[in-house]
Amino acid sequence: MQVHNDTVLACVDGSGLMNAVCDYAAWISRRFGAPFGLMHSIDHHPETTMELELSGTIGFDSREQLLEDMVRQDEQRNKLNFQQSQLIMQAARRRAHRAGIDEPLLYQRHGGLLESLADVENYLRVLVVGARGKNHEDQPHKIGAKLESIIRSLHKPILVVNDTFTVPRSFMIAYDGGSAAEKALDMVIGSPLYQGMICHLVCVNEDIQALEWLEAAANKLKQTQGIKLISQRLRGNPEQALVDYQAKFDIDLTVMGAFSHTRVHDLLLGSFTLAMLTRSHKPLLLLR
Fold first, then answer.
1. 270 and 228 inside one domain
2. Are both 182 and 267 inside the same structural domain?
3. What is the pLDDT of residues 206-228, one digit of tens each?
4. Same-domain check for residues 92 and 198
5. Residues 260, 194 within the same domain
6. Which residues, in sequence order, are CB contacts of 61 under 8 Å at separation 6+?
7. 64 in a domain, yes or no?
8. What is the DSSP letter of 288?
9. pTM for this one?
10. Could you give the C-alpha distances from 52 to 46, 56, 67, 229, 236, in angstroms and in order?
11. Which of 199, 7, 16 lies closest to 95, judged by CA?
């Protein structure tokens, strides 16, 4: 099925975060009035297939029998993977219905998740993913193995979900005066997603120039109707200061500009992202 333009796409995998991913994607879809889609990628993990050098080790008949057995095992594995994917999509569809989506669009793909997303990237409005997949859901202080590659590769807004759904009433813009932060600011100003919410514009910087950045950014945001603005400059370690501020004011969503391709790897491996994704327990919206 062809992905519709401006789709809000939820990546589902049967993990413990799947319901929250569906709920946040449904909320965004309704706020935008945009199509809602569910995607599950059936990765057959070809790298795990048994690889044997059979020539010269066993007899011809035995070798043929072993090859036939391996083919049957692959076919059975693929059939089970497809059945599991069907069950995941059915559960996600039911969750979408509960979240107010009458007709979710279903996209079941074969192959790796990153490749599947690359194929549909141009049609996306927002991508919603869990911070951890099924293989890491019992490790709350880690992020999923595929998440870094997704953020590094895609050029669309990505909402990373790390806990159960709460209707966002407030959001925090992590602002540093850089070009990525300015782009994020512009996207907030032009979006209906944040209407009626409290915006905390927060800059963690002890430089006196940060006051000028913050004032200029606040003046831009004040032009946006429907947002109540609170601006704040903080001192100290950036990631800790932001996490503490978010917890103190019970902020529902953090918004920030993703770095360029040359810096996003450092972003994902650095303590800042780990702190925001694993300690805040609130979703992180990366704007590109």
1. yes
2. yes
3. 888 888 989 999 999 988 888 99
4. no
5. yes
6. none
7. yes
8. -
9. 0.84
10. 14, 12, 10, 63, 56
11. 16
